[in-house]
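Box 3.1. Reading complex inputs
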Amino acid sequence: MKKLVMGLAGAATLALAMAGSAQAADKTKVCFMHVGPITDGGWTQAHHQGMEEMAAHFGDKVETAYVENVPEGPQATAVIERLARQKCALIFTTSFGFMDPTLEVAAKFPDVKFEHATGYKTAANVTSYNSRFYEGRYILGQIAAKVSKTGVAGYIASFPIPEVVQGINSFVLGAQTVNPDFKLKVVWVNTWHDAGKEADAAKVLIDQGVDILTQHTDSTAPIQVASERGVYAFGQALDMIEAGPETQLTAIIDSWGAYYTKRVQAVMDGTWESQSTWDGLVDGILTMAPYTNMPDDVKAMAEATEAAIIAGELHPFTGPINKQDGTPWLADGEVAEDGPLLGMNFYVEGVDDQLPQ
Amino acid sequence: MTYLSPLIGLGLAVIAGSIMFTFLGKPPLAALYAYFIEPISELWSVHELLIKAAPLILMGAGLCVCYLSNNWNIGAEGQMVIGGMAGSILPVMFPEVVGPFLLPAMIIMGTLGGMAYAAIPALLKTKFKTNEILTSLMLVYIAQLFLDWTIRGPWRNPEGLNFPETRRFDAAARIPEMMPMDGRANWGFVIAIVVAIAIWVLMSRTMKGFQVKVIGASPRAARFAGFDDKKMVFFAFLIAGATAGLAGIIEVSGATGQMLPTISPGYGFTAIIVAFLGRLNPIGAIVAGLVLALTFLGGENAQVVLGVPDKAARVFQGLILFFVLACDTLILYKVRLAFGAAAPAKGGA
Amino acid sequence: MGITEAILLTIATAATPLLIAAIGELVVERSGVLNLGVEGMMVLGAVGGFAAMSLTGNPWIGVVAAIAMGALAALAFGFLTLSLAANQVATGLSLTILGLGLSGLLGVEFVGKAGTKLENISIPVLSDIPLVGPLLFGQDPIFYMSIALVIGVSWFLFRTRPGLTLRSIGDNHVSAHALGIPVLRYRYLAVMFGGACAGLAGGHLSLVYTPVWIENMSAGRGWIALALVVFASWRPARVLAGAYLFGAVSIGQLHAQALGIAIPSQFLTALPYVATIVVLVLISQNVRATLINTPAMLGRAFVPDR
């Protein structure tokens, strides 16, 4: 017993000493706060990988810390403040529900830089950043319409928030460029990660005749089901090719690493400024997994679309586009502005579903 | 011995936790320091402790009344949710209504909401003899889903870009902070302490409290004494529901300032543990509420400072609860043996 | 295989983990013990099963590990609530906290790894019967276990002497003790059986349902299992019916959505809980049935006087 205590004490002293030396002044401390576990296989894991990429890029020059599984609401405020007080120079908060808590703490710590993902409010020391996931989903729609034999795709959706609605609309618009009669079945599972429920939704959709699955949830369960049932699917947030080597056509990969590296560099250089960024394929914040399991002509089409979006020649939300009920939304050639997209709460024409209220 | 047993439990948990931290490659003493000491070594962090402790203390104290009278209400989480919703009706649906009466009205409505929801299992128990453990638990899920639907549907902020949250409350609808210069803690904590002490007085100094204990310890003796069993069921559930509703509106109007699809990270369930760690004594609930709040805060701090994963923090919390519960009953068990059958109604329904 | 068979199979997969966990908890509650830690034991079973499968490559070893994990967690619960007479509600909740944390910690290595699914066992000829063939004879091994468990538990509780004894302990542990029945030994075995079942249910999640390990992958199914036990008024056959009804509602809800019929999903999700309360009220009305089925000692600690 005594030995154990002494051993523990020794180890602790050593560690405290090490912790002390790690706090060297020339290091930039970059911190993250996540809503899910860093091993969720999707959203949070992608952010965590981004952090690791950034840390690998800077090596000794940065120090990182993160807090996972933080509930949205007042608990988040306490965690952000703790990060700010622990000398984090730059703090990334990676869930929509952290927006107001981030602003609240930022007001108290004007010297600390904050970046909040997927929100819409900013401040002098708070940047808002997001990714144009819908660009990738447009390409998925095109591929789906080409590859599908039944002409119906299934969409496993999480919650009816603008980002998800954007994705559904963009997917349908992409598909319509190939097959104007393409149909999309949407199932809302009301969760970001419940592998079982996602698998259920996948089975249900396949039973109802879809032969392509896409998802806006975290787990690889839908791809596993698709692979068992012999239909195709798209990965989400991460490259999920391992879950279905012969099933995944491509995946929309959240590549936050480049963005994080860029922003940390700005802090080091003293050039960090508050902004509201909504980056896309062109900035590398969003990348497409290799196009696999599809004929060459489909692959060529997907690559061409990707190139056109990157070149700025193609915007998925370009008129003429009608709303679901047939009322005009965008005139011919008109490109949607970011504001309406960020608050999108309606379907475009051709979506065969009712948007939950 | 009575005061020593939780410390022994804590000590054992600390040893087990140290072994776990060592396995994880984290220095145990530094981890323990980050867990227990650092969070209360700074004033702002103490404020956060009070914010977290307030709902735990409130509901823990309320649940004491339930458990002492053999009413197994485990639905405080749901009663808290409904209380938060009832209290938010004014600031969400009638945002133009502001004035000095607004906050008191919200607090009263929140309390009543919690009481009304707690009355359901009480009614089912008295009228239909339905097992309250199960009904109160089921009602938690119903309340959570109802809240989720309300926030994503009718109560969604019209200016919030369709995200699932209500409009932010006006300053008049917020419980003010006690010392805004030092931290965020609001007067909700003081309310919690006052309520807990009031319940303690009720239980230890009044006839009603005596009745509660007699009914809990020996229902037959209570019947001979002419105490009304059914009234007592309602009394206990309404007290617990009131504290839960109050906790809900304090959380919403104090720390949060708006309604979200979830308003509690499981405070209502944690409060059950608080009530037992506090030995079903409202004053004990104050201490236990503070300790449990510290384990949450400590877990966050250990993540930030040492990179101890969140999962390890939860395991440690579970270990603390296990060991303290184990040691506690060990001690109380001896007490019971010494005093015979009429000793505290602990550990039994 | 037609669409009806496919739908039935989907429902069976969704119902099986609920059924197994609920059958286990039913035995626990029949003995007079309330273990609210089903969720924690289930998620430990899921991680244990996946880890063992991943390390050995054999999903059957995974099944054994899942069962062992659950039983071990239940043993800890039993020690506190039975030997030390700690409060069952508080201990069960603590067990859930511990289980969710510990499973996350144990599972770190296995996140994102592809799993080997426990293969289906098709019984020749029988599985070709239209409609019910694939459902009853072309399923995964844990499905067969779930049905065997329902039959076995039903037989044990109502057709054997130890089963009768177990029920009598649940109804009145003091008299049982007076009759010389080893109350705590029975309860220990019941609690561990419940844990083993919860572990197996978790194993179904990570070895059959979705062969992958994800933190918190039980996603509330342990709590639903608890509700099912009550919904079934502590009768094994009704647990079977309840689990499949629940599975049918949740899968039917998804089908309705895919057909374009919009129903607020929160209301459908709440339905089983409302139904449970209604059933509770109904069975409480029938005093005789209540006396027969409800373990009167549910949640009460037993301390033998010495």
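In summary: Residues 53-284 of chain B form one domain.
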